[in-house]
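Quick sanity check, 4-hydroxy-3-methylbut-2-enyl diphosphate reductase:
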Amino acid sequence: MFLMAIANDAAAPAKRQNPSRSGFGLRAEVHDEIRNDFDSALVQRIKASGGTHQAGRLTFRLAQEFGFCYGVDHALDLAYETHVRFPNRRVYLTGEIIHNPTVNEQLARMGYCFLRPGDEVTADDIVLIPAFGAPTHELERLKRIGCLLVDTTCGSVVHVWKRVEKYAREGFTAIIHGKYDHEETEATRSRTTLYPNGKFLVVRDRVQAQDVCDYILGRGSREAFLARYAAVATPGFDPDRDLQRVGLANQTTMLSSESLEIAEMIRRAIEQRYGPEEVKTRFRSFDTICSATQERQDAILKLIEEPLDLVIVVGGYNSSNTEHLCEIAAERLPTYHINAPECLVSAREIRHKPAFSKEETTSWDWLPEGPVTIGITAGASTPNKVVGDCIERIVALADVG
């Protein structure tokens, strides 16, 4: 996607404008610092013992896959390497490097600044691109300035970009299953602007996908469709023209089963509207859910098959993949999505974000009396340290030290 660029002189202004994605050869030097900041000895012991931890009347069962994924590890490696390589340079982040408050607060303590409107970035500065990526217009603006760009964009996200660009190049509208205002989807949809006739439409869920299917099948009015979807589509989007040839993609952290279902819904609509012989020329689809997201969703599905009393899901409230873990577990068990140990106020009171909710709420009597088995999982941007701290907090609240 981008050329690799490594600055040769830490004291001199960066002259190269292409983003660095390979790091600065300091991974071994920053390994211990990252581990100290984000790892948990307790979590490592539980994993080594098969994923079960007994503390008095409490039994904790960890999902087989949870917490930091490869993309997050890579982003943090680059952030810490940059800090070591350029200790005296001003370093900006275009946004949260990942969706976890603990991680972003730690980078702020290290001196990273979030790039705000009006900030005057110069060629002497360094700018980190988050793991979600950044819109094409923002990348081009920064490259024109001449600052060194350190690109931590996850490889799975870049994979989606390539797919969307291919759709735009071949004249297909990219229908993106995602959250329109999520940083990843914002960056992904911007890739269509690289081509003069590139088009996109973002759908959030099955309900919105059904509206698209209905329109393809000739149901509903153009005015009503545009009133609802013009704000999440390419400016000048014309459903009569732009839904004739479509390609499916998705935000990498969406619910996999829903993404696959949406793709099949739209494929069937195309087939019904134009006939089976036209599907190959009018429809494209490729599963772009990242493997780490899929593995964590599979792991929570397996975990909730066990006899549990409740599930704790740990992760940032704005983390899409964490939200979906909560939604999966909540279908079967009392489930509490928390973003920090402090949410565990007492053995009676808990602050959490319920499944399908946008706001934190307070619930009572969440921890039952007597023997309790608690399932634990965490989003791909959640440090083991936060998971371990939450387990220790629950043990302390239950007074079973």
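Posting the structure with no commentary besides this: Residues 304 and 329 are 7 Å apart (CA to CA).
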